[in-house]
């Protein structure tokens, strides 16, 4: 299942691989877009661990089979 995770200065798009101890979300095939002021920086990784402190909203992105971003 593909999900979007919103952090303070970043947006993360990835596929859920696991949830450990109800507190660590493990994503695979991850695209992270961080913002430094008005300058975006993208990072792609095979696996990302996110410590979860609070989930306020959840919706699976099952309608997007493959997403590609192009920042210009």
TrEMBL record:
Organism: Fictibacillus enclensis
Domain of life: Bacteria
Name of the protein in question: Uncharacterized protein
């Amino acid at each position: 299942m593909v999900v979007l995770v919103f952090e303070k200065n970043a947006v993360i798009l990835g596929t859920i691989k696991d949830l450990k101890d109800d507190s660590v979300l493990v994503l695979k095939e991850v695209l992270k877009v961080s913002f430094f002021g008005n300058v975006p920086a993208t990072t792609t990784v095979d696996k990302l661990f996110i410590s979860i402190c609070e989930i306020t909203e959840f919706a699976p992105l099952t309608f997007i089979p493959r997403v590609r971003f192009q920042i210009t």
